[in-house]
Amino acid sequence: ALVLRGTAKHWAEGDSEKAAPPLGPGSFWFQPANQLHSDLCVDGGECMIFVHVFGKMDGTPASKPPRSPGPATVPVVNGMPSIVDMLVRPIEGLKFVDWRTPPVSDGKGIAVISGDPATGPNILLHKFKRENPSTLHWHSSAYHSVVVRGTVKHWAKGGSEETSPPLGPGSYWHQPPKQVHADACVDPSGECVIYLHTLGKLDSTPAQPEKR
Known about the structure:
By secondary structure, this protein is an all-beta fold. It is built from no helices and 15 strands. It has strands at about 1-5, 10, 30, 35-40, 50, 85-90, 110-115, 120-130, 135-140, 145-150, 150-155, 170-175, 180-185, 190-200, 205.
């Protein structure tokens, strides 16, 4: 789950709301199946979260004992990197770094939540600036993306920044592998943050210029 609006708390049986860390926009948690837990919006108003469920969506009261717990380590399913037990990552504890070699001073950075972007499936936050839109490129693996902060545009080859719709916090897109596309942060603040769940390693290949 990804917090998009408000401040939430998420805790497992044996823990408490008081001890659980506050989770603001950009914070993430992974909830294993069949583990007792609870959630709460503590913002005094409304919270919104993005939830990616690896099966049907259901909810069983704790008065009924859960089925046998899931495995301690979750295997890679639909590109989900292995995660041990419940994982809660407040955005304040995430560090954005430049993943490129050599580093480029353009304000871009990633904060890895789970997995290794260099080798396989991964979950991360990607930060980029308004003055540095991407050029047309493609990735070898598909990914899911959700806007966390700012306003973004995303378009495939043949489209354009001008004609693509603005995507604010909570907006979603799925990017198939090897499809040429581009992205841009168009927010007046000058900075955007998006959530990426890549189903394989994170790479980027510039599109070949069209022959005239």
